[in-house]
Design a protein that fits this description.
Radius of gyration: 25 Å
Number of helices: 14
Structural class: mainly alpha
CATH superfamily of the largest domain: MetI-like
Helix content: over 70%
Length: 284
């Protein structure tokens, strides 16, 4: 009887796994369906896009749409602009947010908790509320039509990233700080040689969040950049939609090329991303 019960239990576990995998696979397929449709549209001729009923598989596969979109979009120029904005602001985010989070997590000073609450309160302020005052400031200091409005604010910290890193820093034992001080280390030594090496998962999560957000940012570059040669990929992608017509096959091909770096980044760093997000909620 015991062996029969064990066999039935194993069968039940096996059936549950099959059901789970079928549900996850089906959900993943439906979530990937828009990307798949975009890819197939990018491989079609213009006449095939508007056929009814829709033709799922292109006949023939028009691979020339990708190099054509690459040249029409001036992909290399706009890619360079995008990388300048992304990595410039990413450097500012990592520097400012890690330092501020270290201060909130490790130092005790009057008003620390109140300041942290105020910091979290700024998360509830919509970006649309501050965009006009910021634009006026950047106009008066002469930064419009340059990359500075898209990079410099990152050096003043983002509340969400500060919160994320602060929560992770709180999980690191303070005994490591005390041991470093006993060995003659300073607070900067603790930050550079103890805290940062141990918080790689949280930093990876911040990098992924900010890279994808900055890479896909459309509103900021659209407002602050007036010169076509300074447009980022997201703004240049919108130029495919013309007033009198749109080459949808080129637009879909360009969309695939723009989205591919974010997909590749998340695919190779998802382990660090999930680990970092999970650990930031262990201790408040």
């Amino acid at each position: 009887m015991t062996s029969i019960f064990v066999i039935k239990k194993q069968h039940l576990v096996f059936i549950k796994k099959i059901i789970l995998y079928v549900v996850l696979t089906s959900t993943g397929f439906f979530l990937a369906l828009p990307f798949l449709w975009t890819l197939l549209t990018a491989l079609k001729e213009p006449a095939q896009i508007w056929i009814f009923p829709p033709q799922l598989i292109p006949k023939p596969f028009v691979w020339q749409n990708f190099p054509k979109a690459f040249s029409v979009m001036h992909f290399v120029l706009h890619l360079k602009n995008t990388l300048i904005v992304v990595f410039g602001s990413l450097a500012g985010v990592l520097l400012s947010c890690s330092l501020v989070a270290y201060g909130f997590a490790r130092f005790r000073f009057p008003g620390r908790d109140i300041l942290f609450i105020i910091l979290l309160g700024t998360l509830m302020i919509p970006a649309q509320v501050t965009i006009i005052p910021l634009f006026i400031i950047f106009v008066r200091i002469g930064w419009v039509n340059s990359f500075k409005p898209l990079i410099v604010p990152a050096f003043f910290g983002y509340p969400f990233y500060i919160f994320l890193l602060r929560q992770f820093f709180m999980t690191i034992p303070r005994e490591l700080d005390e041991a470093t001080i006993i060995d003659g280390g300073s607070y900067f030594t603790i930050f550079a040689h103890v805290i940062l090496p141990l918080c790689k998962p949280a930093l990876a999560a911040v990098i992924i969040f900010h890279f994808i957000g900055s890479w896909n940012d459309f509103f900021g570059p659209l407002i602050y950049l007036n010169d076509n040669t300074k447009y980022t990929l997201s703004v240049a992608l919108a130029n495919f939609q013309g007033v009198y017509g749109t080459h949808w096959e080129w637009l879909m091909a360009a969309s695939i090329m723009v989205a591919l770096p974010c997909i590749v980044l998340f695919f190779f760093t998802q382990k660090f991303f999930i680990h970092g997000i999970a650990l930031t909620g262990m201790k408040g």
